[in-house]
């Protein structure tokens, strides 16, 4: 049988190119960008993860770090300047630390779910986003002493949570279908 015949395609060490054989990847100038980005074992090489959601998650993480630092400094300021009852100070600090643990978990699961195109971590992140929005509302409305800086920071965080929730729903819908 001559090299390049129908039986040569499956022999190891054969110099015949596999062409569109799903078990092989093309190498060299004939390889396309989709071959370089395809994953073995996947039925489709279409990328469904959301770039805008990923950017919003990074922005939300940076905004939340600013919120944490600013809120800690403002609680320290309020406890020195105003009469801040000790039980309420402990409550506000505890809720701020709880919010920190919630945000770290939410951002991790949201990033993981988006990049791996998995619905479950992204759905858990969506539920945690609702919890983070509730805690942001606490720091916006129900905190013991609310300054205008608290209002600005919490409103910004609430807006980011709302946008993330919408984009997470869209991404979950894209992953499921």
Automatic annotation (TrEMBL):
The chain crosses the membrane at residues 55-77, 89-109, 121-141, 153-176. GO terms for biological process: non-motile cilium assembly. GO terms for cellular component: ciliary transition zone; membrane. It is a multi-pass membrane protein. It comes from Mustela putorius furo. Residues 1-24 are annotated as: Disordered. Keywords: Cell projection, Membrane, Transmembrane, Transmembrane helix. It is found in: Cell projection, Cilium; Membrane. The keyword Membrane applies. This is Transmembrane protein 80 isoform X5. InterPro entries: Uncharacterised_TM-17. It comes from the Eukaryota.
């Amino acid at each position: 049988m001559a090299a390049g015949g129908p039986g040569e395609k499956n022999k190891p060490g054969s110099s015949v190119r596999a062409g569109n054989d799903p078990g092989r990847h093309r190498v060299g100038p004939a390889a396309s960008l989709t071959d370089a980005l395809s994953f073995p074992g996947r039925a489709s090489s279409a990328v469904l993860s959301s770039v805008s959601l990923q950017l919003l998650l990074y922005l939300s993480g940076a905004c939340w770090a600013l919120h944490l630092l600013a809120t800690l400094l403002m609680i320290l300021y309020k406890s020195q300047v105003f009469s801040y009852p000790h039980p309420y100070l402990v409550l506000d600090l505890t809720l701020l630390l709880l919010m920190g643990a919630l945000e770290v978990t939410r951002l991790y699961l949201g990033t993981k779910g988006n990049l791996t195109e998995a619905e479950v971590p992204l759905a858990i992140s969506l539920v945690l986003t609702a919890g983070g929005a509730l805690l942001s509302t606490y720091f916006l409305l129900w905190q013991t002493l609310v300054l205008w800086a608290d209002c600005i920071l919490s409103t910004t965080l609430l807006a980011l949570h709302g946008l993330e929730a919408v984009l997470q729903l869209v991404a979950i819908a894209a992953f499921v279908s």
